[in-house]
């Protein structure tokens, strides 16, 4: 197998023990740190796979600097954002964070579906047979320079009988398996881990952002019957498909909400901060009859802010709408090219910060031709009202991941230590936090 095994493998949580968990969502537009207490779940109505109830103890979020298109471009800048987000969460929770689960969005996320068969000689299937057929799956694929994030068994077969969830104890001549391997560029994963380790934090695991978002926002029936999840972030948009309760496909591209903001700033000749405010307060991707009558105040670059110009809202919509349509058209093309048209089942769930733009579900329904809803984090207690929105879906999903990580196939986890000598400026840091910088 030629895959790099860079991200560490997380040990599954004990179903009978409580734990305090810290996660870090490092995105293009924001960095979010959540600290939560996970208590064993005794409710029969809990979503499938959730063995624990999550209660948020601390939350910290900062504007992300040093990330573009999901990839790190300025190590010092993103380190500062991470430190500030973690410090805010620590102060709120009253605990000290030593290790985190992080997400990976950049690095050209990609999927491979692998399958293999092994002979079992007419006897009952045992655990070593399952391990052997899954190892045979991973041996068939691999590309140099890629790091495996997840190895997810989709189903097993014995002879002509397919879609078996657990073949142990069943009798047959041949055991088959299908596996979904999700990977990213090893260099992108290494840089992301390095940024976190420079903050004196240990990386427990790295989770693909679309997988984390799916764990957070999809209802059990949606994941079982089939749904396409569109996670629209600041710098990237990812497309993932779930069917039979499994993640079956992932793709992504570097277009997101920040591109809409940049278009507004250029089209109206205003500052980026003002463009973001206009997008948030007045932006929409669908036209209405009142757009010509309503006006928005803009202060162009270099002009006196005491005398803003007033432009019809329709001018703003005319800038936003083409970019949103472009993003959704790329999503449509990626879904068609995926080879899994039946898996999406016409059910589409939008999540991520950029999905909150007014009229986005209607625009997606028109372009993607499906039933569309906006996905928000499900089943987490203590989340502030300001965080109960699609922008925090991936962060909440990172809290769910340890409860389902035991379903993954074992990956060799020889994690190269990112030594202090590899981090410019690292050795000069004294103490865990540079309190004077806050």
Offer a quick outline of the entry:
The chain is of the alpha/beta class.
Describe the structure.
The chain contains 11 helices and 19 strands. The protein is 30% helix and 29% strand. β1 and β2 form a beta hairpin. It is α/β, with parallel strands linked by helices. The radius of gyration is 23 Å and the shape is globular. The strands form 5 sheets. It has a 6-stranded mixed β-sheet, sandwiched between helices. A 5-stranded mixed β-sheet has the order 14-13-12-17-18, sandwiched between helices. It starts with 18 loop residues before the first strand and ends in a 34-residue tail after the last helix. It folds into 3 domains: 180 residues, ATPase, nucleotide binding domain (Nucleotidyltransferase, domain 5, 2-Layer Sandwich); 74 residues, Dna Ligase, domain 1; 156 residues, ATPase, nucleotide binding domain (Nucleotidyltransferase, domain 5, 2-Layer Sandwich), CATH 3.30.420.40.
